[in-house]
Amino acid sequence: MQMDLRSMCFRFLTTNLRRKWIAAIHRDAFSPTKYSKVCELHFPKEDVLKHTECFDETTGRKIVAPLYTPRLRAQSVPSIFPNCPQYLTVVQNKREDPEARRIRLDNSAVSAAISESLCTYKMFEERRRFTTFSELMDCLERETFSECWTVVKKKECVLFAFIDTSNFVPFLSVSACITCDLEINVFKEQTALKTVGSHIFPKKIQDIGQVNNILELLLSISANVQSTQDNINIICDVLQNVSKVTEGKERNIEFLMEQVRLLPVAQERLRYSPEFIVFCAILFSISPHAYRFMRKSHYMSVPHPRTLQKICLKFGASPQKEQVEDNFLAYVKQKFSYLKTEDHVVSLMIDEMHIKPYLDYKGGNILGTAFNGTTAASSVYVFMIQSLLSSFKEVVHILPVNTLQACDLFTYVKNVITGLHSIGFKVICVVTDNNSINRKCMAYFSTPPKKSVVYPHPSDPSSPLFFIINSVHVLKCIRNNWINQKDAQQVLTYPNFENMDKTLALKIASFSTLKKLHALESKTIIKYSYGLCMKSLCPSNFERQNVKYALNVFNPYVVQGLLTLGEEHNLYEYQSTADFITLIENWWSVVNVQTKYKGERLKNSLKHPLTVTGDEDNFLFLNKFLNWLDVWDQMGLKYNCLTRDTHWALSNTTHGLIEMAKYCINELGFKYFLPGKIQTDALEARFGNYRTYAGSQYLVSLRQVFETECKIRLQHLLPLQSSFFGNITVSLTDTDEQNLPTFPVDLETTTGSSISTVSDTIHIEYSPTDVKEVEKLLPLLTYLSGYCTRIALKRLKCEFCASVMVLDRGALPENSACNNTLIAAMDRGGLLYPHLDMVNAVMYNYITVLKLIESSRETAFLRHSNQRELVIHLTTSRVNTLGFFLPHFTCKKGHCKDRVLSELLLVSTNILLNDYVKKFNECSNAKKKRKVQTLS
What we know:
The protein has 936 residues and is α+β, with helices and mostly antiparallel strands. It has 4 domains: 2-96, no CATH class; 319-470 and 681-720, Nucleotidyltransferase, domain 5 (2-Layer Sandwich); 472-677, no CATH class; 739-932, no CATH class. 49% of the residues lie in helices and 12% in strands. It contains 35 helices and 21 strands. The strands form 7 sheets. Strands 14-13-10-15-17-16 form a 6-stranded mixed beta sheet, with helices on both faces. A 5-stranded antiparallel beta sheet has the order 3-4-5-6-7. The relative contact order is 0.05.
């Protein structure tokens, strides 16, 4: 008991003493030396701090420095008491805070987990890496891919394919292929991809993770979640691959790629390729209004018109600058460097165009005066060259004049010819109309002046210079001379072409007979004399300049009309009139050949090129025709014949073409000669461009002529300045005959309810007399049926249908001989003899049109929205009711008889309604009514 009390007292004293020490130590009551000894004797070593530590951020190192005076940790307690009981000097563990302990344990667990994860990841990566194809196959065995991927393992490669079945049609959207060399190729459909956005596909792979990343990227492409630039890059890659497999479409691909790349670009940052700017400049010069409309429509991105104007202003191609002698023929001299050898042999065409005598001030200069005075120019002489061996043609000079003498014109013609010769061209002929000033001008090329077919060349006297009157102008003069005859029958007398004996009676060609022929067929919409109209028979002074109306007189259809209806209606001298038309039409067939294969295409030996072998029909005809003209001239007729100038022009053209063909083939080495090249049609077309570009007006100013010619020259010059457009090849046709579009008429779907509604209001009753009334037109209807059958077969493209719709010309039925008379008369081996069902279908189509244009139904018929479909509907209903059309027809290609009938009626209806419109317009014109009343 005493012992316990003594212990308790000692504990009390030591405890109080310890508290005092702690308080004294923390109050720094001891000296530094005593403080250091107290800390070492009475505190554990871990509670005494003899060094301090800090971290240097600049060097990244830990700095340790010794303390001059040791320090105690916070909350440290003296626990060592020398010379005291042992239990007082035992260091007791301090109790850790529960929250701190939890954090410490969590951190330890996380550190252990991270260490274990790093080891596991390292092992995982090592298992996914491969260096050979066999290691790749082992990795694929351990790897699991998404279910959407189909993996195909082969000896030489591994395929990953995503097959899209959303539309119930298997479709390969994206795919990847790894070869045995560990090269990977990525595809979208059938297009190889190298990049997607900023991601670049590696050439080789060494990790299965790369494969997963590529597959995920391909899935995003397939789901269309890529950015706009990614889509643009993919489209450009696709177009680039398409250009490799499509020959001749490189320009299309380049245009599409450029337009696609410009889609995300801001308007002020648009940049175009030089080739596209050239294209836009040409298009803008052709039609500024159309170009602005195309730009505003936003269908394509094109440069601003002002940008194009700045570019075009740099080209000094205006003919206005060539009026100065220093710049004479400057444009064609520049153009010559781009031409080929076959473009150098040319003919010089000269023609006059009337303009407004108008002075114009613009851009700092006054324009509009004639070249030889201060008066305003009333016309311009345009000089154009045209190659005899190619399609090259170009205006070389424009001369504004008011009044011009033949000697002055001769000076300019000579300067143009010598200037072209010095450039490198070879001018072998001059082509003009039959104006007296042109004949006098060319006469100065000989000494003394005289009219001739050939003159010495001003640059090379040993070479010939031919003078040819434009054959188109001569043809119009023949028709006008015939119309100008003053007698009642408007007669031309001419010698017999087959027998040119002067003792034989002259033959008569009556123009009034043609008017009577037209009057006989004026009330029907189909005619034997196809094309013959009042504008051809009674033309105005302006219409006399249109060659189309002259050709309506000199054509084989008028000949067949005369021969068919002449005897029946007792037409005056119909046989000799037909012979004269045939003679002039044959002459025109020879001199109007402009292409090599025209004769083969039309199956006409007169339309072959001239080869001057001596045994060809066209060459023999020209020589015989020239002899016939000489016989006609030697008869000395003063009345009922061609005028002296027209007769000389016809003889000059015929003789000149013969001699020119001999020279070109024998001297220049031509394989053949095309007489149609020796015409001024190209120059007349240029005049039409001048008027069209100037606002579709007849009289234009001199400035408008120059500005228009400048635009046309830019259209020709800009492509030559571009390597992209430098090799333009123009085919004969842009449409492949084998790929012509078809226009089937489905009466159940295309006609709609309007047809049935209107057809119910327009009642047509067919009677047996309808067929009897058109029996006299069966030859015409048969000919028309043959033409319609040909066009229908082009659209059907079926040999079986052709065997059914066309009869063999060697096995024609005997009862069809009278119906095929017109085909037999016009046939040169290429016309078709249609089946009787085709003829009957066209006949009922013609009857339907006649009934619809009757006075009681014509108004309702014209108010219909689509008259063609109405006619086809009514005709088809009638033909199906009768049931005669190909009752047992079964085509191997699946063509039904309704399809064949619709194709046939489509063509025939177009022809019949077109003829009806022409007849309607001619009858409704008050001027033409006055002419008809005057003539009658």
